[in-house]
Amino acid sequence: AAVREAFRTMDRDGSGSLSTQEVYEGLNSVGIAVAVEEVEKMVAAADTDGVDGVSEGELLTMMRDVAEGKGVMRTAFRQGGAWLPGFIAQPLVALLEFIGRLDDKQDRKLQGKVRPYDMREASGEMLELRGKLSQLVLDNDAVWKREENRREQIRTALERAKKETSGATDRGDLVSKLSQTESPGIILGPYFLLCWILDVLFTNRPIQRFWFLENVARMPYLSYSTMLAYYEVLGWWRASSDVRLIHFAEEWNEVQHLKIMEALGGDRLWLDRFLARHAAVFYYIILNHAWLISPSAAYNFSELIEFHAVDTYGEFLDANEELLKSMPAPQEAIDYYESDDLFLFDEFQTGREPSTRRPRVNSLYDVFMNIRDDELEHVKTMFECQTAEVQIMSPNSRKQRVEKQTASR
Fold first, then answer.
1. Measured between alpha carbons, how far apart are the two ends of the chain, in Å?
2. What are the CA-CA distances from residue 82 to residues 65, 74, 75, 76 (Å)?
3. What angle do helix axes 364-387 and 169-180 make, rounded to 10 degrees?
4. Angle between the N-to-C axes of helices 185-201 and 206-217, in degrees from 0 to 180, rounded to the nearest 10
5. Which of 258, 273, 365, 379 could be joined to 214 by an S-S link, Cβ 3.0–4.6 Å?
6. pLDDT for 47-89, tens place per residue?
7. Is 54 helix (H, G, I), strand (E, B) or coil?
8. What is the arithmetic mean of pLDDT over 91-95?
9. Rounded to whole angstroms, how far apart are CA atoms 286 and 305?
10. Is the whole model's pTM more than 0.90, yes or no?
């Protein structure tokens, strides 16, 4: 029934078969970005009965191919102006497609419920939502301009503060902390390279970019928790329990972001899943070594990444405000932000007292605004991890200590 409805929606001239143009427009309207050339090849391959155009059954076969990433992979390993010679590209694509089918089957086993924006349930309402998602934009140049403006504002404020520090101890401490968290070239180099790769891979694909980022964004907090546990086991540092709890809460927050992006279809293409999962493992290993050498450097890199996320989400919100406000929030976002148990939500926000931030979730705009604000709280925590002169306490632990001290007086 879902495929039949999708077929009727795409068959704009009512001919009973789909032309290449109708297939191309239909796929792109639901957020599946495939080149015209690839659509032509898929239509030719799908038209097994020899009749001009794609029938309903042939459409089902072709949509499965797209879901497994075949069109995207053939574009990535294209032979004209080739990145790889044909004799290497063809077997490699075949192998990746085989793995992709296995991966897709595993994903279906793990997904126990239909996601609200999922194309697998192609009702008219869901097709409309997918169409709106495909209209969302993100200008990479605008994100970089926003980041440059922020850096310039911080530099200006730092210079002004340095001139006004005479006799002001508190201000002098702030200047010292800001100077302490300035990123050296050895940190900025990999950071700019990573951002450039994201710009290239996810041009005009903001939801897929966000899903990739949230997949990878979990790794720093898993890495830091791992290294802190090693320190405790080796007897080097035993006062880190609260810090590990904070990092766990941060990782849990990123997992919720990831689930929201999955609800929006950010992980639909197998190639995106393949890249994100392998990048996450690689990132985790690198961060373990970086933290072992210099915890401050590892935290500094995470601060840069989280600040970039704040700028990216901020630009995305400004560029798509009206459209985002017209779309409902995924249930995953409502379940997280409006949960009765927000202990872990409070726990990663070290710059706030518990229960002082309770986001609203009335539309998709609110969801992305909340995610942006979460990322800003991560920036604050990474800043504190670099500059704290005493052991960091989680917000709830800090609150309990104050309550005990107050009660004992």
1. 69
2. 22, 11, 10, 9
3. 100
4. 140
5. 258
6. 666 666 777 777 666 666 555 455 544 444 443 334 444 455 5
7. strand
8. 54
9. 15
10. no
